[in-house]
């Protein structure tokens, strides 16, 4: 099982801890690619039009300015830095024992700055979306699409990939034909009609992630086994689970009902 998560826009800046060491992050072969993005981000964040280049409003100017000192800023495990809706529901920072070990083996967080992380990789808080384009790297999804296959393809091959990413982050890497790729979507059903939701989708994906990590027994290895695991929360977290599609590309729909 390989669980793919996006980072979160909401981050808690560490107040203590040694700075990030690019060579000690997961997939150290990505260190040169990370260096290039980090340098480009620092440069653009120091300019007056930094917020507009990064696609954020003036109210986040302080967070953009913080990007200029990421090499010396305090760092902490990604599971503690990412504090958005999905990550709060997943509760990665609070995992212990076998669940923590499973998260280390199975959870990968796609990032516009770092490429890919595990929950225990130590990073500073930063402001950068995969949807941004930096001078020197271009669109980050395209940039990382050149580097991530070398570090993710082998892990995904022959396994089930539980894809909880948004479209922006999904564009940075797609599993190859040897993996069973299951995209997780969430819909709200009311009066017989269904509507795709966003905020609730993040929460539901986080709940599913945590369940897959803490449930007893072996982790899912196929799309059908994944659907069975998700069905264990029918009646509590969601009203129904549907697995659609054929072959190596499937969709797991979590149905919330009023």
UniProtKB/TrEMBL annotation:
InterPro entries: YaaA. GO terms for cellular component: cytosol. Residues 1-20 are annotated as: Disordered. It comes from Georgenia muralis. GO terms for biological process: response to hydroperoxide. This is Peroxide stress protein YaaA.
């Amino acid at each position: 099982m390989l669980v793919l998560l996006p980072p979160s826009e909401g981050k808690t800046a560490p107040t203590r801890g040694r700075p990030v060491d690019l060579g000690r992050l997961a997939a150290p072969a990505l260190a040169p690619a990370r260096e290039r993005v980090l340098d480009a981000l620092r440069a653009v964040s120091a300019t007056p039009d930094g917020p507009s280049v990064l696609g954020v409003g003036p109210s986040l100017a302080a967070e953009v300015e913080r990007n200029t000192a990421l090499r010396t800023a305090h760092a902490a495990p990604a599971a503690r830095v990412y504090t958005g809706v999905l990550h709060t529901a997943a509760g990665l920072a609070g995992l212990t024992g076998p669940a923590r070990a499973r998260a280390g083996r199975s959870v990968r967080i796609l990032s516009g700055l770092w490429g890919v992380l595990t929950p225990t990789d130590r990073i500073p808080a930063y402001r950068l979306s995969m949807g941004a384009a930096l001078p020197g790297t271009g669109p980050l999804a395209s940039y990382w699409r050149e580097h991530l296959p070398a570090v993710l393809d082998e892990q995904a091959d022959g396994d089930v990939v539980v894809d909880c990413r948004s479209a922006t982050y999904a564009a940075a890497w797609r599993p190859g034909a040897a993996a069973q790729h299951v995209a997780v979507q969430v819909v709200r059903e009311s009066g017989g009609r269904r509507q795709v939701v966003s905020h609730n989708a993040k929460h539901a994906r986080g709940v599913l992630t945590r369940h897959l990590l803490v449930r007893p027994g072996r982790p899912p290895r196929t799309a059908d086994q994944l659907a069975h695991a998700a069905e264990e929360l029918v009646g509590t977290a969601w009203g129904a689970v549907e697995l659609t599609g054929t072959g190596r590309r499937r969709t797991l729909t979590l149905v919330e009902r009023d």
